[in-house]
Amino acid sequence: MARTAKACLAAVAALALMLLAPGAALAATSAASVPAADASPSPTGYGCIDGEDEYGAPLPCELKIQVLNPICDNNVPKLQYQVEAVGSPNTTVKITWINPDGDDVVQSGLPLSGTVLWPGAVQGANGEAIDWPGWRLENGVWVEGDEFDWVRPSVKVLFQVNPEMSVSVAYPPSSPACLTSPPDTQVLVDNPLPPGEIAATGSNVAPLLIGGAALVVVGAGAVLLVNRQRRTQA
Fold first, then answer.
1. Can you tell me the distance from the alpha carbon of 18 to that of 77, in angstroms, rounded to the nearest whole number?
2. What does UniProt give as the signal peptide span (predicted)?
3. CA distances from 147 to 70, 113, 119, 154 (A)
4. Which of 160, 24, 7 is nearest to 96 (CA)?
5. Which residues contact 87 (CB under 8 A, 6 or more apart)?
6. Chain segment 177-198, per-residue pLDDT in tens
7. pLDDT (tens digit, 9 = 90+) per residue, 93-138?
8. Judging by beta carbons within 10 Å of its beta carbon (0-12, 13-18, 19+), is residue 147 exposed, middle or buried?
9. Measured between alpha carbons, how far is 105 from 152 in angstroms, rounded to an integer?
10. Mean pLDDT across the stretch 13-40?
């Protein structure tokens, strides 16, 4: 009788083990398939990293402008800059020259430090300036006023990494060593001066010389005539 009872208990235990084993295996598999939580902060797209420091304060998010220097290079106005993005993983900057009355000028995908052309400045093949912002060439003469008048004498510039920061920068002045505006005497070969101005600066020299020579001849003749009359009277 005792043996029969033990046999029955053993059978019940084996059956229970068979029923519970698949559930336990499934639970173990499910637990293994769930990834561990990532405790590190992640970027919030184009901007700063979310997170807190060891004291629970938000991580810093700011843009520092370390260099902002308007310069003249080979008679070309340029802006030299260097920025530092605190709290951002981004490594490029977008520079926007803000036009208060029209379309902005955007220079994007730039390194965090470098030098850019002033809007409206144009370089030739040799790097020399051939056009300046705020000036236009008419009949070979430089005249103030063009579509880039708004970048002089100062202009607002927005730097975005992101974070972002806007500052006002002054147009670099001309000096004897470097011109940021066209010289008064500059004339391009394919834009000669009007005929009247050319005559005034050199082509009328020959007529003046001829007239002067004629006056000399007339004067000499008058002197000879006077001398002859004196001799006759004597």
1. 85
2. 1-27
3. 20, 28, 10, 15
4. 160
5. 48, 49, 59, 60, 61, 62, 163
6. 999 999 874 444 444 444 444 3
7. 999 999 999 999 999 999 999 999 999 999 999 999 999 999 999 9
8. middle
9. 14
10. 42
Q: Measured between alpha carbons, how far is 14 from 16 in angstroms, rounded to an integer?
A: 5
Rounded to whole angstroms, what are the CA distances from 128 to 72, 86, 124?
11, 37, 5
pLDDT tier for residue 32 given thresholds of 50, 70 and 90? very low
Q: How far apart are CA 203 and CA 160, in angstroms?
A: 56
- Report which residue type is found at 60: P
Which structural domains are found in the chain, ordered by start? Answer: 62-170 (2.60.40)
CA distance 172 to 77: 6
What percentage of the chain carries pLDDT values higher than 90? 49
